[in-house]
Hints:
This protein is mainly alpha-helical. It has one domain: Ferritin, CATH 1.20.1260.10. It has 6 helices and no strands. The protein is globular, with a radius of gyration of 16 Å. It starts with a helix and ends with a helix. Mean pLDDT is about 80; it is low at about 1-25.
Amino acid sequence: xxxxxxxxxxxxxxxxxxxxxxxxxxxxxxxxxxxxxxxxxxxxxxxxxxxxxxxxxxxxxxxxxxxxxxxxxxxxxxxxxxxxxxxxxxxxxxxxxxxxxxxxxxxxxxxxxxxxxxxxxxxxxxxxxxxxxxxxxxxxxxxxxxxxxxxxxxxxxxxxxxxxxxx
Length: 167
């Protein structure tokens, strides 16, 4: 029973994290910025949690890359929103949305495995969203943001797949 409960929690973690990257495509610039910001906050917080909980050097190294890159991306989105004078959600709303995307805290040996799997899933979806945005947006700043951020997320995906394979 314990093994089944652990698998259920792992599946729940992966599914919930997958929701964080599953926003709709063909969004308005404001919707894109708000969703992307919330997704980044959720990824940052999940990575901070993983950094604290994991004993794996690989996981800790990966979390630092994610935290740094996602923080930079969020700062860039904030500048774009200000430049374009877009009405964006208040910070509290973005944080609340990110909290809703965060998984329940898991304990035990399967945490690293669940974290790695969730990172593969959410990063694949984030890449898909950015590729779609880069192709469809008529806002040059968002197109540039997507094109600048894609290589970083593709690197995250490679790293996450390597983590997943090592678990």
